[in-house]
Q: What sequence folds into this?
């Protein structure tokens, strides 16, 4: 009778284990280096909990009467979000067509579209806000322009990806009827991407509500302007009221967005 | 009325899918094309309506040569060829009526197509064709709510409303159960005869092809290796098309019919 050897199994070989320890050690070094190189003033860090409690005291109770000033400003914020979403949807649609591999008229056109999309997406809305405040002066117009610029690339990218993923058979069937390119597009492509366009638009509107409450910090309209001025004047009870109302509006926006998008699918 | 001369297709990948195929159809008949996957059946019918560009050769629909056409001329030529697809290729999110009327896209302007304004005679014809294929009352259903057999009926109506001079049919029954497959084949045959037009049908099912076609074309490796009536299809013919196999159970037994 021969003795049965148990089969030995190890997830990693010796060499692999060594490599993994090496990587973990390097990550540890990076962490140590990062904490050393940033200039941390430790008294401020240790003092933070006390400061937080202090601020909380100054913020409570939130000033309920301040709601009178908040409401018109909040309506402005929501309108900025809605307007910029509408403009972004309209402008992103041709951009998406030009950027999608299967609908672009020419690779060079596709390149140009891609550059516009990447530019739009890589610049933060606060930076767009700063730029447009210079162009249009502080206020709503700058805010709408900033959020439109930022949403444009987001919308165009997602829509053009969905154009690339359509069922080609439906396009083929429309070509076979003798329809020209434009008619093939409205029957063979558009019905397939419509749910994505609507869903993405609503999702973007929801994001824009959050963003438009921030862009006021750089003077581009909305509740953010009220927030900065209240902070500058140390009106902490007003600040807390603003934060609560932003929270409520964002929550409501998210709810509307989720409900509508659920209905679509 | 229809002829293909020396049609050749090499794909950019180097695959030589069609090697000088020729065929003539002189009367309204049902032509079934047999052949294994990759034999070039799909390529052949797609080269006819130029969904695939042939590398060389000629295609004549009546006196019109198709391979040299461009732009509007090509679109107008495609209107005269109705196509029915393997996976139906209906616009899933649109209604049955919109799918049927999309067969008239070659005849209406862009904005009329966009706002779904089709001429009344096209709408009348759509209703009567839907009734003809047994889909009366389905016009406002969405295509994705239909069963496979119902979808293919819509596909047939979409092709017919083009007023085609020929039907190009690519594996119309491959996703269907045997009974529905027979019903669909019968429908295509009846309607082609009714309209007095020929139909070229790619089909995997040998028995089905023999039962409904007037003429069989066999393809193997991009070449037409058989062309004749269904009664001439023997075990040797099938071996020539598909390769060695025991075909005695597949082909229609001649003796059975003589009894």
A:
């Amino acid at each position: 009778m021969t003795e049965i050897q148990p089969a030995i199994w190890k997830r990693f070989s010796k060499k692999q284990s060594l490599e993994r320890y090496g990587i973990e050690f390097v990550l540890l070094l990076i962490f140590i280096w990062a904490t050393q190189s940033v200039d941390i003033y430790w008294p401020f860090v240790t003092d933070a909990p006390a400061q937080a409690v202090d601020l909380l005291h100054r913020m409570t109770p939130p000033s309920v009467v301040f709601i009178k000033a908040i409401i018109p400003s909040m309506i402005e914020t929501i309108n900025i979000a809605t307007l910029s979403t509408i403009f972004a949807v309209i402008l992103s649609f041709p951009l998406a067509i030009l950027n999608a591999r299967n609908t672009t008229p020419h690779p060079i056109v596709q390149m140009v579209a891609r550059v516009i999309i990447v530019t739009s997406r890589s610049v933060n809305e606060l930076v767009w806000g700063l730029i447009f405040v210079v162009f249009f002066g502080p206020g709503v117009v700058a805010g709408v322009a900033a959020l439109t610029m930022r949403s444009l690339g987001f919308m165009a990218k997602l829509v053009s990806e969905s154009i690339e993923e359509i069922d080609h058979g439906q396009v083929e069937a429309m070509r076979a009827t003798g329809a020209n390119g434009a008619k093939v597009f409205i029957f063979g492509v558009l019905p397939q991407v419509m749910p994505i366009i609507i869903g993405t638009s609503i999702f973007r509107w929801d994001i824009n509500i959050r963003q438009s409450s921030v862009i006021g910090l750089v003077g581009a309209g909305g509740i953010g302007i009220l927030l900065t001025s209240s902070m500058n004047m140390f009106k902490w009870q007003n600040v807390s009221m603003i934060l609560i109302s932003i929270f409520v509006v964002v929550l409501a926006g998210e709810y509307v967005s989720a409900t509508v998008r659920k209905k679509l699918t | 009325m229809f002829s293909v001369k020396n049609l050749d297709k090499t794909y950019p990948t180097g695959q030589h899918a069609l090697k000088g195929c020729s065929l003539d159809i002189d009367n309204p008949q049902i032509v079934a094309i047999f052949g294994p996957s990759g034999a070039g059946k799909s390529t052949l019918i797609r080269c006819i309506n130029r969904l695939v560009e042939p590398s060389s050769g000629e295609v004549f629909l009546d006196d019109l040569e198709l391979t040299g056409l461009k732009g509007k001329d090509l679109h107008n030529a495609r209107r005269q060829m109705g196509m029915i697809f393997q996976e139906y290729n209906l616009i899933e999110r649109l209604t049955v009526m919109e799918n049927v009327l999309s067969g008239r896209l070659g005849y209406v302007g862009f904005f009329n197509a966009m706002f779904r304004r089709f001429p009344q005679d096209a709408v009348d014809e759509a209703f009567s064709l839907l009734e003809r294929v047994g889909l009366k009352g389905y016009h406002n259903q969405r295509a994705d709510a239909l069963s496979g057999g119902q979808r293919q009926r819509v596909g047939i109506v979409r092709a017919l409303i083009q007023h085609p001079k020929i039907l190009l049919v690519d594996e119309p029954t491959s996703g269907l159960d045997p009974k529905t497959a027979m019903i669909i084949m019968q429908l295509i045959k009846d309607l082609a005869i009714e309209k007095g037009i020929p139909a070229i049908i790619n089909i995997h099912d040998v028995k089905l092809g023999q039962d409904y076609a007037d003429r069989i074309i066999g393809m193997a490796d991009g070449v037409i290796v058989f062309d004749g009536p269904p009664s001439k299809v023997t075990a040797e013919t099938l071996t020539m098309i598909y390769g060695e196999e025991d075909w005695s159970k597949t082909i229609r037994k001649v003796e059975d019919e003589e009894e």
